[in-house]
Amino acid sequence: MTPARLALDPADVLGDVSVSFWLPIVALTLALVIKLPNLVKLWRDPLLRAVGGLLLFACGVFVFASPSVIGWTNRVTGVPNISAPLVYSLITALCASWLLLIVAWRNGLSDRSASTRRAARWVVFAYTGVVVALWVLFALADVPVERRRDLDTYYATTPFMREEILLYLLAHTVACSITARLIWNWVRTDGLDAWLRWGLRLLGVGYATNLLFDAAKLTAVTARLTGHDLDWLSTNVAPSAACVSATLVAVGFILPHSGQYLHERWHARLGHRRLRPLYVLMRSVNGGGTPFTPRATWEMRLIRRETFIRDTLLQLSRYLDEDLRDRSYDAARALGSAPDRAKALAAAVTILDAVAARERSPETDGATSPSGPDTTYLLQEIQAVSRALRHRDEIEAVRARAAAPAERVARA
Q: Where would you find the membrane-spanning parts of this chain (predicted)?
């Protein structure tokens, strides 16, 4: 085998790569569905309008840019390559929505100043002018041969069509560069929610990947203009970069919303489970419990369990022994517990003692101070107290040490 036969043409290597438009379409549609309720309720919000327009135009780009839909559009209209200005217009509208989103983000939702409105108008007017120019240039161009995959390079040297291709790529590159730069600047600011920060990072990577689309397209078109053939950059690399970019952008919009939602649900479920020891103990006092509702959210279940525990603790408060709690705290500290842990262990010992006291004399008042027991910590830190109840060996050690004479505890 000769060395010449060992050389691989990039077009041959990438020619069999199938670019699927379904993944970005599904991801973008999912992001649009998630945002749709807020878009309907708060349509006057410029930020939400920009997000909605961005996702809608992005979906439209990938639907109408797929080769099968390109062929269908050309066939239905009877105009060869009419899909080209249509797709280019959708891409340009998408660019405008990027910039409008940045204007809304940069100035904040409450900013309705003249400079903000002026910046938004400039974006709309400039990119509307680009769309009009795209259709005028297409009307002047002679493009009789239908090209579904390689139109940009096939007609790169055709008068008017050449200018149209360069115009949409220039508009796309400018918008993508500005958007990517401002998003990365925002990522570096302080005070961002963790989910929002990760969403912005994905958006930044997505827009940066879009620049690879522009670089591949412009390189292939420039090569045609100079008499070279790098069409594989336009037909294989650029669509792949666009699909990856759109998917990252969609996930970047989905992540802050869905991530926060899942985090809150997991936190509520975990909190509900952690309250079980204290809840079971309070059920032994109250004799009842919270009703089980299969359709209730974990947030609602957590609220009901917390309410039940606090109500029962208030009923139990007359049996609480403040002196026992103080001695238990000192005992826990003497055993090496940190202050917060010692408070939780002391509260657990006091509650168990109060439950036992109530069982011994349910109709009489427990040992309380004249001013009444302080239940602030018990009502506020039920999670910590419930976690302490899981460690009965520690509770018993604290109880035993607290039962010793006061001077012995002090010497320890």
A: 20-40, 47-70, 82-103, 124-145, 165-183, 195-213, 233-255
Radius of gyration of the chain (CA): 33
Neighbouring CB atoms inside 10 A of 79's CB total: 15
pTM over cut 0.90:
no
Half-sphere exposure of 114 (CA within 13 A, CB side): 0
Could you report the per-residue pLDDT of 260-314, keeping only the tens digit for each? 777 777 888 888 888 888 888 888 877 666 666 656 777 788 888 888 888 888 8
Let me know whether 331 and 374 are in one domain: yes
Domain count, the chain: 2
Range of the domain at 375: 281-411
Same domain? For 111 and 146 the reply is: yes
Q: Residue 143: CA atoms inside 13 Å, Cβ hemisphere, count?
A: 31
CA distance 397 to 412: 14
Helices (H) and strands (E) in the chain, counts: 20, 0
Residues 90-140 have pLDDT tens digits of: 999 999 888 888 877 765 544 456 677 788 888 899 999 999 999 999 999
